[in-house]
């Protein structure tokens, strides 16, 4: 098990500077940043509608409040009446649904116990099915699948809006499983024991109440568990604060405590560390902040639980897989002569002998142009994806007992190479490749023979023969070179009239790599649209420092990067403000919210999806407290002053000349509260600004609970973009 996976549920949808920053130091204060902002073409003043305060909108934080939902339904109806009446809506929705329901999609799989397992959705399986096959059958043209669990049938039988959220099965036979089910798509789930051989839930087996958290098998009769155990057991961020060991046949109330964190922590995450010699050890990761954690080994001997032993590793690091006795550790800060961004390893047996780490070995060290995208351990090799200027390459690493060796793998260049499913008990691994204009291809790779074979590939959903994808670099306000990609028709005239969609994220060290999107190609590119992907700071495209350069009071750098890309597009006559729109979701929704409040002169459309917009109360709403490591603390004098200066909700001005914004959110989103979008929309309504709004009643943080709803949302978005950027409305 890779411990960093424990943190993935925290991400909002949810991580090197190219050159040294010439103007701003990384510890620049909010006051210095504010002084420099005075020279910008926009102002940052905190606005409230005359006669109103922020408190007047607090009723919109009542998720199912009668008054709040009445406003939501009225906004929804107005938006649907307009967009669904457009003659392009039905064709777009049909095209999107055809793609989403297609049986030609790649069935991505995990390989365990000689079988491949897959979760599949199509027109006949709206909620999806968990199914399995043999590897030989999977690699053939007509795979024979056996259904393990049908979620449509389960939802009907139990009269629940179940959304499948994954399973955890105990090796080596993978029969005993914990299945996670969400009501309507929320992050909070119930967990139920399931027998993968019989296809039935286990009567009298392990079952939890709805909660955010995690479970892992220690053995066939024991789970390590972190959930809501009752009053006082969850952190301010809404995640578990206590880890326990739960024995079969006993009530959860009698589970044995393994340790606990603090209420102010993000979370306290128990897991099981699987070693190559078959040992299963309990580990607990205490997330002090989103990026700072402490990891403990909890020894169990002869049924007795020992005192936790802390791994002597940096707080800004992620403990990963064990391979041939070496535990992999990715660094987000300098440590013991190694630098942030490096992947290193140490002996797990040495640590367990006396709690100390003796020798530390370098596995991989990226240069200033490169970044480690991800890795996975198999029985014979560690497979790794590395990007250089956002283009990916794959490597195989091995440990010879003294040092790490590596070789480059032969996969298509100038796109993305992603390490898919790996299993440390198997040599068969899956690697996928794609680019903006080349559909995904899934490869099998045998780490024993070092042979690869094409397993599956997507069909070409749109005609890319007359299209081109190019990379450019914009210069941000501090001199940093910011990469971005432009995908367009080869015959595009550089006359400033091209409808152009600029997409970005810029947070949580999440990299945006070249990717093939059938719906984007069909609904946007084939209709003459230009697509732009901005690799701004805050992401992980150049490693931890690229992300850390935009943390907290340095966040304006991220927005300056995005603005520099928009201005570069206009300078190149690819587009103009009348034809340029932006899109982003979650943290990207904050990005697009900042864009329409800071630089409304640059854009004529803004899709603000499942966004953070009230940066003075984000830490009080749902999982918001967990993100203070990214954004800062609104209650801190310096950080709070800066956050208010960028908060989109607080910078909507009565005299502002804004594009017609499209807010998209979900009532069932229990990660980013729908009140962010609601309150921003209400303030715009109070001040007389035009906007569109669509809140899906189900769907969670993805704003869609099933494929039909996803197709509808995609059609709504693209009709809006066409109206604003092509028609010129």
TrEMBL record:
InterPro entries linked: AB_hydrolase_fold (IPR029058), Pept_S9A_N (IPR023302), Peptidase_S9_cat (IPR001375), Peptidase_S9A (IPR002470), Prolyl_oligopep/macrocyclase (IPR051167)
Protein name: Prolyl oligopeptidase
A Pfam family it matches: Peptidase_S9
The keyword Hydrolase appears for this protein: yes
Keyword Hydrolase among record annotations: yes
Domain Peptidase S9 prolyl oligopeptidase catalytic: 519-726
Peptidase S9A N-terminal domain ranges (all copies): 59-452
Gene Ontology biological-process annotations: proteolysis
A single cellular component GO annotation: cytosol
Highest rank taxon of the organism: Bacteria
GO molecular function: oligopeptidase activity; serine-type endopeptidase activity
Transmembrane segments: none
Signal peptide (residue range): 1-25
Keywords per UniProt: Hydrolase, Protease, Serine protease, Signal
